[in-house]
Amino acid sequence: MNIFLVGGVAVTTFLRVKRGRLFSLGKYDYKLFIGMLILSLISTISFNKNYGSNKYWCAGEYNDEMLAIYSLCIITLVITVSLFCYISIICEMRSIKIDESFGNEEISNQRKETNNRIYSKISSYILIFIIQYVPVTIYNIGHIIHINHYWVYVVCDIGINFGGIGNFVQVCCNFYFIYIYYLILKLNQYQYLVYN
């Protein structure tokens, strides 16, 4: 489900920024991600017989390579689509920056600050995805070519767990600190009104 969510966020962001399509369903925004849930369920159901005990954890059966090949295809597809979407967004932002370079300096500084935040968010999304799914890719390749070493399992386990921790840190940095900054600005405005 997580990998489909990563791809869905990239495509949704691409459609919003590059194509100008805004999806606002109010309290029914969850419907945007029903497709990812359906894809996840179809994948789980279709490979239900392929799950079983493995040497170190419960995963795909070691002799069955279809699940590993499918996982590799999905990871490759999602990273390709995500990179295309995010690179297109960055190119769009750079073209806007060039067009606005002849405008007001204050607007230009605000645009630079906004672009820097967007670049860092996009970079962090791509970095977390790579940190999380490159070890899974190594595990799947090892599974296909029948490398059954302990380090392959450890690398995969660390990558998956670090991806979840990285996503948590990313959400905290991107949203929580923005909220704190907003509260500080409101407090400063209130103090200004009280003392003046």
From TrEMBL:
The keyword Methyltransferase does not apply. It comes from the Eukaryota. Keywords: Membrane, Transmembrane, Transmembrane helix. The chain crosses the membrane at residues 28-47, 67-89, 125-145, 165-185. The keyword Cell inner membrane does not apply. This is G-protein coupled receptors family 1 profile domain-containing protein.
